Structure prediction request, 82 residues.
Amino acid sequence: MANDSAEQLNTLKHDTKDTIDEAKNRAQAGGEKLKRGVEGDSMPMGDRIVSNVKETLHNTAADIDAAKRDVRHGAGKADDKV
Prediction:
C-alpha cells in the first residue's frame, strides 16, 4: 500500500515536470513564429531558416513531453496537449 502512494506521488511529480516542460517548449515555439511574423521580410533568410528549425525543435520537444505522460498513463489520451 505504501508503495502505491509512493508510485502515485512519483507519477504526479513527473507529470507536473513534463507538463511544465511542454508548456515552456510550446511557448518558445510560439515565440519563434511570432518573431518571424513581426520581422517579416526584413528578417534575413538565414535567420528565418534558423527560426523555423528552432520552432520545429521546440514543438518536437513538447510532443515528447506529452508522449511521456501518455506512456506513463497507458497512452490513453493523445489529445491532451497544453
User: Anything to note?
Assistant: The chain is about 80% helix and 0% strand. The CA atoms of residues 26 and 55 lie 9 Å apart. The chain has a mean pLDDT of 89. The first helix runs from residue 2 to 39.
